């Protein structure tokens, strides 16, 4: 049961992040994913307005630090390097 839950959460998170990346590029907008507890909360990166959320029951650790806040992944239409405090971004860990 644990591995199935991790796989389901990974697939859902991957789909969400891919969708946001494409939306940011197409719309030339800044979109952020803020991880709070066991949720990924999508927000407009310029206004902070909430867009949607995804429950991730197996979320264990988030290692992304950005200029817009910690535990966030940022997408925009011009690349993301301007937002990350570390050269290669970070990682999200799921655990069963």
Characteristics of this structure?
96 residues, alpha+beta, globular
Task: Produce the secondary structure layout.
Layout: H1 2-27, E1 31-36, E2 39-44, E3 50-55, E4 59-63, E5 65-66, E6 69-70, E7 72-75, E8 91-94
Antiparallel strand pairs: 1-2, 1-7, 2-3, 4-8, 5-6
Any overview of this molecule?
- This protein is of the alpha+beta class and 96 residues long.
- 27% of the residues lie in helices and 36% in strands.
- It has one helix at 2-27, and strands spanning 31-36, 39-44, 50-55, 59-63, 65-66, 69-70, 72-75, 91-94.
- The protein has a 4-stranded antiparallel β-sheet with strand order 3-2-1-7, with helices on one face. Strands 4-8 form a two-stranded antiparallel sheet. The chain has a two-stranded antiparallel sheet with strand order 5-6.
Count of discrete alpha- or pi-helical segments spanning 4 or more residues: 1
- Number of DSSP-assigned strands: 8
**What percentage of the residues does DSSP assign to strands (E)?**
35-45%
Uncertain regions spanning at least 5 consecutive residues: none
Q: Rough shape?
A: globular
Largest sheet: 4 strands, antiparallel
Strand ordering within the main sheet: 3-2-1-7
Run of helices and strands: HEEEEEEEE
Average pLDDT rating: 90
Domain module tally? 1
**Spatial extent as radius of gyration:** 13 Å
Category by helix and strand content? alpha+beta
Task: Summarize this entry quickly.
The chain is α+β, with helices and mostly antiparallel strands.
């Amino acid at each position: 049961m644990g591995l199935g839950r991790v796989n389901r959460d990974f697939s859902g998170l991957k789909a969400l992040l891919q969708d946001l990346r494409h939306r940011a590029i197409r719309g030339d907008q800044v979109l952020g994913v803020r991880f709070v507890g066991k949720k990924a909360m999508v927000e407009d990166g310029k206004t902070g307005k909430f867009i949607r959320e995804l429950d991730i029951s197996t979320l264990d650790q988030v290692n992304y630090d950005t200029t817009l806040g910690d535990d966030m992944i940022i997408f925009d239409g011009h690349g993301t390097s301007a937002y990350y405090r570390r050269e290669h971004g970070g990682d999200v860990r799921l655990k069963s």
